[in-house]
Amino acid sequence: MTKLSKQPIDWKSILSPHSLAYTIAGVALAAIALEAFMLPNSFLDGGVTGIAILVNLGFGIDLNLLLVLLNLPFLFMAWRMIGRTFAIQSGMSIFLLTIVLHFLEVPTVTEDKVLIAVFGGFLMGTGIGLIIRGGGLIDGFEVITEYFHKNSALTASEITVFLNSLIMLSAAFVFGIEPAMYSILTYFTAIKTTDYVVEGFEEYTALTIISKEDELVKELIVKDFKKAISVYKGERGYLPETFHIHHPVDIIMTVVTRLEVHRLKLAIQEIDPKAFFYVQTIKEVKGGVIKKVGKKHI
């Protein structure tokens, strides 16, 4: 067992109003997506939910029972690999989803298959994202993806695509090509929406600059754009034609939103048209001074 699995259960976190609100809202949206859009039209989501829908529609086994039984092995893995608090929060989310699905009756909103795929995926993705922000999951595939990622040369994305491709191929075999294609559209919409809900629409970007006018670039970023910077000592030069020529330089790194990158790059090029910089997308930013909200820094 890992160190995380031996940590005590954080009931304060599980039962906090913040966590419960995200979980309840997420479960409600996911249930509406299933009842009003996906299930009446044989559209699948990815992961364990997709397998449960596939078996339910193909063999008539109760969907709620399938959601619980299929997720149990993954919850056990989460208990051992990720942590008890996470496993309990995920179990609560799955159990709450089955309760809502049992009692909720929502009529089909539209018969247009494209609208069903897009809006069903949007609601499902929003629900999943809110549940993740609340600290849990309603689909155990994320756990097995993490396990294989740690124990194989494949990336988490490659594993996710491979496993969900098998589900979509099964859907094509059972229901036909068209429902499977719409299921792919539903799944793609859901995962992109989940990314936005979890990571936020204001995606952060790391911008690194190497310029002979490093002092002016520092002043521009800090004083004009009101951004914090980190400075590394380095050297510039080492060009193929003049490899022996090099100069000390301050390498400047700052974190901005993707909406600010273009404007900052143009301003830097006005100071030094030959400035070298590269951009990296980052998933999470915590601590330090990122932006101003009113008089507060976050």
Describe this structure in words.
There is one protein chain. By secondary structure, this protein is α+β, with helices and mostly antiparallel strands. The protein folds into 2 domains: 3-199, no CATH class; 204-297, Alpha-Beta Plaits (2-Layer Sandwich), CATH 3.30.70.120. It is built from 12 helices and 6 strands. The chain has helices at 3-6, 11-14, 17-38, 47-59, 63-81, 84-103, 113-133, 141-150, 156-175, 177-199, 214-224, 258-271, and strands at 204-210, 229-237, 246-257, 276-282, 292-293, 296-297. Strands 2-3-1-4 form a 4-stranded antiparallel β-sheet. Helix 3 crosses helix 6 and helix 4 packs parallel to helix 9 (156-175). The longest helix has 23 residues, at 177-199. It is elongated and about 75 Å long.
Count the E strands.
6
* Backbone shape: elongated
Number of helices: 12
Order of helices and strands: HHHHHHHHHHEHEEHEEE
Strand order of the largest sheet: 2-3-1-4
Low-confidence stretches: 292-298
Residue share in β-strands: 5-15%
Label the structural class: alpha+beta
Based on CA atoms alone, the radius of gyration comes out at 24 Å
**Cα distance, first to last residue?**
36 Å
* Tally of distinct domains: 2
- Helical content stands at 55-70%
* Biggest sheet architecture: 4 strands, antiparallel
What integer is the average pLDDT? 83
